Amino acid sequence: MSPRKLMFVLPNLFTVTSILCGFYALTLCAGEAAPAQLHQAALAILFAMFFDGCDGRVARLTRTQSDFGMQLDSLADVVSFGAAPGLLVYKWALEPLGFVGLLLAFSFTACGALRLARFNVLAMRSPQGGGGNFFVGLPIPLAASVLVSMIIAHYAATGGEPLEDSARVPVVVATLTLSLLMVSTVRYRTFKDLRLSPRSALVLALVLASGVVIGTRFHPAYVLVAYSFAYLGFGLLESAFLVRHRLVARKAGRGAAPAMVLLDEEEGEDEDEDDGQRMA
């Protein structure tokens, strides 16, 4: 086998390693899982996110993007960021709720799979690729990161004590909200258009400074929670302003504005694709 063909294996190795981390998290959640095992499962999913983020970059650097890599990446995401977090949140907080808790955990996994299927369909409609500045719907790795960050923060704050009954309500709301956001048309920035400038450097410094303040004043485990919910809120606010702008445009243009809005929505869907392996 030529060295060039071997290069195509490299990004897929990162993807398969992501699957391994997700599978390991599933094994930790099986049976009567202790809080320490659930914490380890959450950490395993974090490692899966790291490898998932690397495979696309490696594919672009080596110019080995392929349809096979794209499909493998989606299958890996279903396992590592759909099934594993769904079972993890069920064992951590939703199991005492019985069938309702099981349904909520399944909804997270199912909505993640639906989001990935929609992503692949949109990507196949525009095979020229190129990536975009927005995701249509919350990407499944980021949805999983919200649940994982909550579990890690709770374990760090309580030392592994079981979740109190009063704390299950926020977990239920978070799980349901994340499920709906994944299948929604809310647009989330990819930050691929981010360029180094005085303004972007200032924003980055403020983000890092806020993380330092949260980590030193409260607990380092809370930093990931804060960043995750900040990204969720930023996407919702930006989409709300976008909807308001479109409504104003419709009122101003009457007949011409709706066609322009429809064109913007189609372009937004095309922007959601990426080269080879990527975050979905």
Write a compact overview of the structure shown.
The chain is an all-alpha fold.
What does this protein structure show overall?
The protein is mostly helical and 280 residues long. The protein has one domain (3-270): Four Helix Bundle (Hemerythrin (Met), subunit A). It is 76% helix and 2% strand. It has helices spanning 3-29, 35-62, 67-94, 99-125, 140-158, 168-183, 198-217, 221-253, 256-270, and strands spanning 134-136, 187-189. Strands 1-2 form a two-stranded antiparallel sheet. Helix 2 (35-62) packs antiparallel against helix 5 and helix 4 runs parallel beside helix 6. The two termini are 31 Å apart.
How do the strands line up in the largest sheet? 1-2
Question: Total number of β-strand segments?
Answer: 2
For the termini, the CA-CA separation is: 31 Å
Q: What radius of gyration results from the CA coordinates?
A: 20 Å
β-strand amount = under 5%
Largest sheet: 2 strands, antiparallel
> What's the overall geometry?
globular
CATH superfamily: CDP-alcohol phosphotransferase transmembrane (TM) domain
Class by SSE composition: mainly alpha
What count of helical segments does DSSP give? 9
GO molecular function: CDP-diacylglycerol-serine O-phosphatidyltransferase activity
Transmembrane segments: 7-26, 99-122, 134-157, 169-188, 200-218, 224-243
Pfam families: CDP-OH_P_transf (PF01066)
InterPro entries: CDP-alcohol_PTase-I, CDP-diaglyc--ser_O-PTrfase, CDP-OH_P_trans, CDP-OH_PTrfase_TM_dom, CDP_ALCOHOL_P_TRANSF_CS
